[in-house]
Amino acid sequence: MSTDDLPLPAHVDVVVVGAGLSGIGAGYRLQTECPDRGYLILESRETMGGTWDLFTYPGVRSDSDMFTLGYQFKPWREAKAIADGPSILRYIQETAAEFGIDEHIRYSTKVVSADFSTAEARWTLTLDHRGERTTMTCDFLYSCAGYYDYDDTYTPDFPGIEEYAGTVAHPQFWPADLDYSDQKVVVIGSGATAVTLVPSMTSGEGRAEHVTMLQRSPTWISAVPSRDAKADFLRAHLPAGLAHTLVRSKNIAFGTAFYQFCQQRPQQARKLLLGMTMKLLGDEQMVADHFTPTYDPWDQRLCAVPSGDLFKAIKAGDAEVVTDTIDSFVPEGIRLSSGRVLEADVVVTATGLQLLAFGGISPQVDGETVPLSEQFVWQGAMMTGVPNFAVCIGYTNASWTLRADLSHKLVCKVLNWMDGHDYAAVEPRPDRDLTERPLLDLAAGYVQRSIDAFPRQGDSGPWRVRQNYVLDSITTLRTNLAKTLAPTPRSAVRRAQDEKVA
């Protein structure tokens, strides 16, 4: 029997929202570290995979190496360190099947609302299950839906776009029947999606005639090897688990060191990255005009291009980069502020994603919606004002899964602590006034547009969402839960219920 044929239970101990990379990892940790707790993963779409099932645009791939983006408990065995989307999706599916996590997933089930009752110490979830409204309850709610809006995108208002005679596509909703072979293509944007699309659309069967990447301003882009030679050597000579651990540790150390180098010595980091780009392109003026950002490296997320494929496409003449702003669309393409017209049969608006807190769930407590922007995040996972609730938020400067797995383990630690002390509910509460900071401290446009709708981070201790896996891995699971989590004993809940009945 598939899980599609199973009815939703009336109650379960833990509900995980989202069956993507994070949700599957959460399922593994819950069943191995909290074996006495029942759990269910609710997925609003019809399949698992999250981002890696949703995005199907040409060349979709990770921008982190798979030894750190992959799970600690499931070695990555494929050749490419920077993997394509279909390979990552297969890896997620294999993990779910291997550990029986897929048996805990219910698809086409969207959490419409969530209300925590302090009297009963449990959540009531209103669900849209295959088009019908239903409810269920749980003791603990864990959102692993990320912070992107799967149903909407960010597209600026382009003047004259209704006059354009060609095809417009957005990467998030890539048309399955889009044929761009021998076509002139303009990709608007210069982020991770754009730098992936450009070389992909200029290679292989059905390649475009020419692709132009139109950017308003340059982005830091770094060429990285598509394969990890040291990883290949270790995997060939050591057991899979040991090799995976060693490669993962190596990549974590390098990534952390490089980020700190960029933060502490930005001018030297600029020189290093520009030197690498100059070596690949061999055109000093092109590097100055199109690949020299005004901001410092890692003020925004660094774009990785495996084997320098973007630079190779440009050098071969199959692609070009234009730095300018859009005046308006015209029937034949895009007229720039400089007056130049970029002819285009296809325009791809790789203009960014929309942020959405907790998969669109606005948590309520006793029927009152909690104002998220007034709350603080504890240990990057739980939130003030909302008992028995956790969120999974990955790193912005490293692989998402590194932070996600720490959050999964922390949630399990909290659940086991609650069981050990017979607590029905816990809520993080600061013991002092906190200086608020944005939850995601990035200058990227997609962050700045929506971050005010998210909870805040504090300025120190467990209230600071650090972008440092090495420190987090040492401190997160050693945190003193009794110091910052305010508990509600189960006996108090039972007593209140008995008084209500009487």
Automatic annotation (TrEMBL):
Family: Belongs to the FAD-binding monooxygenase family.
Taxonomic superkingdom: Bacteria
Gene3D superfamilies registered for this protein in UniProt: FAD/NAD(P)-binding domain (3.50.50.60)
Cofactor(s) the protein needs: FAD
Enzyme Commission number, as recorded: 1.14.13.-
Pfam families: FMO-like (PF00743), NAD_binding_8 (PF13450)
Matches recorded under PANTHER family: MONOOXYGENASE, PUTATIVE (AFU_ORTHOLOGUE AFUA_8G02570)-RELATED
Taxon lineage: Bacteria, Bacillati, Actinomycetota, Actinomycetes, Propionibacteriales
Keyword Protein biosynthesis: no
InterPro entries reported in the protein's UniProt record: FAD-binding_MO, FAD/NAD-bd_sf, Flavin_mOase-like
GO MF terms, alphabetically ordered: monooxygenase activity
SUPFAM superfamilies in the record: FAD/NAD(P)-binding domain
Protein name stated in the entry: FAD-containing monooxygenase EthA
EC class: oxidoreductase
Entry keyword Ribosomal protein: no
Key words, A-Z: FAD, Flavoprotein, Monooxygenase, Oxidoreductase
